[in-house]
Task: structure prediction
Amino acid sequence: MFTDFSYWHIKIFYDLTGYFTAFFVTWFFYKKVIRKEELPNPFTDRNQKIEYYLFVIAGAMIGGIIISTFDGAMILGRNPESGILLSKSIAWALFGGIITAELFKYFHHIKTPTGILFLPGIVLGVFIGRLGAIATGIRDFTYGLPTNLPWAMNFWDGIPIHPTMIYEMILLALFFIIFCFWLYSKARKWWIRNGFYVFIIIYFTYRFLVGFIQPYSQWWLGLSTYQIIAIPMVVYGIAMIRKNKNI
Result:
């Protein structure tokens, strides 16, 4: 079992690696992959662009850290000997970031899709983050319930469980490969406008389903908070794809 010292060193290493990867991949995608005529600049000036990014970052931090820590405290309440740790969640970060982004775009009358610029960075950043979850084992609280399935894994405590971190990594890898394939196909234009929303639908559908094999507290109708927020996020993704047909 990791000591707190080694746990935080491993956690910080993978988190920082994921953040830097996400930043550089997003920059590369913006500069080298997307052409200006395919995704016009939605901002009136540089100040509005900076304001937008600050709003999105703030929303992601509020959702991904503050709300996630509260949610994690509810989970850890079932294991008081583990203590309460500062928590982070990609699901809550996406939830908070999307809400603030859409509010900003609504009040500034911006209709151009912007999520696609973040998509490759998000996928690769989360993938690296899940590697960190594997390295820290059950301390990361992203594992699954005990199972006798042949691919069950033991994360430091001797109990075979669903390796939900690996399930998510497989999903992210497959999505990234498919995304890159379609991005250089005849469907490129459609994917540039809708690829982010496709990811939201797939990712939150996965989070809803995998929630049934994770030991998270049930809040309503036998669902965890992650499963509850997954429902409006899937609806959001579908609605935005339908909306883009009329733009």
